[in-house]
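Side project, low priority. Logging it here so it doesn't get lost.
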Amino acid sequence: MFPDKMRTNERKFVLERVEGDKVRRNDGTVDNTLFTGDNNLIAVFDPETNMWGLRYEKGTLPGAFKDQRFTQFAKLVAYVKNYYAKRGIEVKEIVD
């Protein structure tokens, strides 16, 4: 494996609303603390399975994220960006 590429087993997604766009929701709920930094979406790598998954620091994940596992971090990022883009939210940065 490439230890210099794999810095941590957890990566935090920093989210923000798309300017001029309303936040769209499927079930009527978007956790506004995701924009303030009080809650964060975290990608977690499981070294036993070599798979990436998602969790919130606080609360329950949306159904689209539950039980989702990815073999590549880039695919997880694409999935998250696509999910939030449909809701007027963008991934501002990913913090190691």
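Brief comment: The longest helix spans residues 73-85.
Revisit when time allows.
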